[in-house]
Amino acid sequence: MSPALITIVISIMWIPLYIKFVWGGIADYFIRYGRKPFIVSSGLLIVFCLFILSFLNPINSLVPFVIIELISWIGVGVLTISLDALVISTTIETERGKINGTMYAAQNVGLAGGAILLPFIAKTLGYNMVFLTTGLIILPIILFPLIIKEKKIVKKPQKVGTLLIQEFKKKTTLVIAIFAVLVMMSSGMILLTAPIWMNTGLKLDITQVGLVTMLFTIAIAIGSIIGGILADKLGRKTTLYILIFSSIFFTILIIFANSWEYFTLIYCIIGFLQGGYTSAVVAIFYDVTNPNIAATQYAIFISLFNFGIMIAQTLSGPLYVVLGVSRVFLYSAWIFGPALLILYFIRLKKSDIHP
Q1: Which terminus, N or C, of the chain has the lesser number of Cβ atoms within 10 Å?
Q2: DSSP 147-212
Q3: Is 72 strand, coil or helix?
């Protein structure tokens, strides 16, 4: 498949992540049942879809493959937003940076393991075994929440729409929503461009690309922990200014990487910084999210977050073909400019922060 088709297909399959507020609204309406039922049931849906995908070949059955993948990502959307809602309702402001950083780090450790293990499986046993293996690995993890005791904070159906309107009438909330779209667009451009460039430009095979990607995700994991700690110590905005300005410098620097060693070094630094500013941004989301509608309000922030990634990701393939890799990396650095401008106008008042 061509780079343009790959980026478009992946963007389509990720649609459920861009409408997380739908899944969040459902979870908040039925909040009286707690978050655990949604976490476990959505996890089982993911596993079921992975097993089906192991029997489909996207070359011969692209439409069924995309449909099942879409359903699996609905499961991902429900699971992640229910888990985040559980965290928001059980944490305090001064701990959210560290907690979110740890969660994001754990996520990227999983991605790092997958980046090195799954390409090896694809190369030796076939791509279908990638989906089957992943389903078998995550099945016991998904069932783990069953042993955790959850305290239910609301015992009746929520008036989700009314509370949501009240929250988004606040000027700070609206500015943060705009910032959510812009701040991850650079990451979206790099997300697919870098692996394609490693394969076509640096001539690395699939296992080598997997190894570099593993190092990148480990760097994200480390950066997310450091960024979370800094967000709690220095404040959200100060941390973001430091990490975003650094990201601009190193994103431009990667244009001049003409060897895989140099590319890997700069790429991992970018990953470290990305993990750091992501933790700080999500800590802001946690701060201004009302715990009673945590799944819905936080889902809107994350949907906007992912929407920014989707826009840049979808454009990255055609831009790569038309303009070349250097221009794509340059634009991914440039897009931080508007994000920094909006960040300046974010004023976090005590009345905006939920305990």
Answers
A1: C
A2: GS----S--S---HHHHHHHHHTSHHHHHHHHHHHHHTHHHHHHHHHHHHHHHHTS---HHHHHHH
A3: helix
Extents of the domains making up the chain: 3-346
Buried b (16+ CB within 10 A) or exposed e, 309-334: bbbbbbbbbebbeeeebeebbbbbbe
Assessment of whether the complete model's pTM goes beyond 0.90: no
Encode the chain (355 residues) as per-residue pLDDT tens digits: 676 777 777 778 878 877 878 888 888 888 777 788 888 899 999 999 999 999 988 888 888 988 998 999 999 988 888 888 877 777 777 777 888 788 878 887 887 788 778 888 988 998 889 999 999 988 888 887 777 776 665 555 557 777 788 888 888 889 999 999 999 898 888 887 888 888 888 888 777 887 888 888 889 889 999 998 999 899 999 999 999 999 999 999 988 888 888 999 999 999 999 999 999 998 898 888 887 787 788 888 888 887 888 888 888 878 888 888 888 889 889 999 999 999 999 987 665 565 5
